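Here is a typical protein record:
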Amino acid sequence: MKCKRCRDVAVIEIRRHNSAYCPACFITVFRNQVATAIDRWEMFAPDDRILLAVSGGKDSLALWDVLLEAGYRAEGLYLGLGIGEYSDRSAEVTRRFAETRGAALRVVDLRDEYGFDVPTAGAKGSRSACAVCGLSKRYVFNRAALEGGFDVVATGHNLDDEAATLLGNTLRWQTEYIARQSPLLPTAEGMVRKVKPLHRLSELETAAYAFLRGIDYVVQECPLVGGNTQLRYKEAMNSIERTSPGTKAQFFLGYLDRGMPLFRTQERPELQPCEQCEQPTPGRFCAFCRARAQILGERLGEPPADREIVRELSEEVLPAELYRVDAT
């Protein structure tokens, strides 16, 4: 194969574009796609302070690399979820990336700051481990951005993630969720603007970019992800994509162009400060505080339980060795 741009030997084929690229041209095309997303949605300005949610995976680290190379003030935020050696490896990879590039990295440990970790939450709460994980990330990222004075929160959600989410919400006709899905969630009282600069790029493309840039990242999936419905939707989309290249892009980007304006006509609930943490919520208490109280056995509005006691109890319920994985 020949590179579409320079006619050199190609190393990656992008079937949905019916094109192939050499390493240098692919890196340029990848970065241009990110720049297009940023400009089209006016995600942030060159002087904005960006808090980038980093997990140690290929998507968030590839995005961090692109933003740093473009000269943006992008600071990383890593959330320690307490998932045994998987989290240890993720934290190590993220710290090493930041150190080699001289980038600032903030670290928040879920157990130290909020008294629980994701494995404990999955064992003791009514929500699944994945649901608590996503809820905790959204809460912590927004709160950290507010407290740190950041202008925007960026995440590494790629085209595969967005297409799978849209498919799941459409199959269940969750119109409220469909209406909220966007590469840009504007700021509101108590909410920092959130953006997804990789939404035009597939998982294959982010993996190729990370490889070509020599980015070390965590390859294995989270050991608690088994049964996650998002994975089934991804598998369904991948099956269609194999026989009809471009389906994911047509589905999600087509929704952004033609479907989103129709769903955005729905009224959104009014938000007010959570009585426990003062983060915005449509009710008395936000979903994070409700979930946390259930996990820790607390009553909302009362002083939190002693965290040393909570730690001892959680280790009795779910010993660490039950969720450790081989990170080598």
User: Anything to note?
Assistant: The first strand starts at residue 12 and ends at 14. The chain has 13 helices and ten strands.
